[in-house]
Design goal:
Structural class: mainly alpha
Function: Plays a role in cell envelope biogenesis, maintenance of cell envelope integrity and membrane homeostasis.
Pfam families: IspA
Subcellular location: Cell inner membrane
Keywords: Cell inner membrane, Cell membrane, Membrane, Transmembrane, Transmembrane helix
Strand content: under 5%
Helix content: over 70%
Number of domains: 2
Largest sheet: none
Membrane topology: Multi-pass membrane protein
Distance between the termini: 56 Å
């Protein structure tokens, strides 16, 4: 349910875009993001800071898109989000406090150096995502950009998450499996 809720605004944006146009899709994205916040609040009685930031960016870029009837604003929103994530991640490294360790360190115990590498890798991933979004937004069609944002970037993100988990796996504590004592005498 949480994964569906996470992608709900993006899915609604895509469906409305295919049925109407980017301006209707932008309005739907804004409404869906608000709905996502409300559902999250009713389910958990709190809304995380990152969700408020994402909502604010959707509303700001969406409002500019609709007010000026200029799709450039909504097409730049992912770049702004990716750049913000990169700044936070890489900035936390400059301050020698990897934010991923701060966020997940209580759940997963890993060496500090691993948290640094993972934080740096995700920071670089988001820089690459921001650059890719700018390129596609300015050098390809609107339809290509929508497909890139919905499918390709979602796929790249999931793929990078899988690579991260695979990398982390070797650092996770392995449960020691003790073989059953089969040398007992039946005498």
């Amino acid at each position: 349910m949480a994964a569906l809720l996470e992608f709900l605004p993006l899915l609604i944006f895509f469906v409305v875009y295919k049925m109407q146009d980017i301006f209707w899709a932008t309005g739907a994205l804004m409404a869906a993001t608000l709905l996502q916040l409300l559902i999250t609040y009713f389910m958990h009685k709190k809304i995380e800071k990152k969700q408020w930031i994402f909502f604010a960016m959707v509303v700001a870029f969406g409002a500019l898109t609709l007010a000026f009837r200029d799709k450039t604003f909504i097409m730049w929103k992912p770049t702004a989000v990716y750049a913000l994530f990169a700044i936070v991640l890489l900035g936390s490294l400059i301050m020698k406090k990897p934010i991923m360790e701060q966020m997940m360190g209580e759940v997963v115990s890993l060496p500090h150096a691993v948290w640094v590498r993972i934080t740096a890798a995700w920071g670089l991933f988001f820089i690459g995502a921001a650059i890719a979004n700018v390129y596609v937004a300015h050098h390809m069609s609107e339809d290509d950009w929508v497909n890139f944002k919905v499918f390709w970037m979602t796929g790249f993100s999931m793929g990078f998450m899988i690579l991260t988990i695979a990398y982390l796996y070797r650092y996770l504590p392995q449960d020691e499996v003790k073989p059953a004592d089969t040398a007992k005498d039946d005498n």
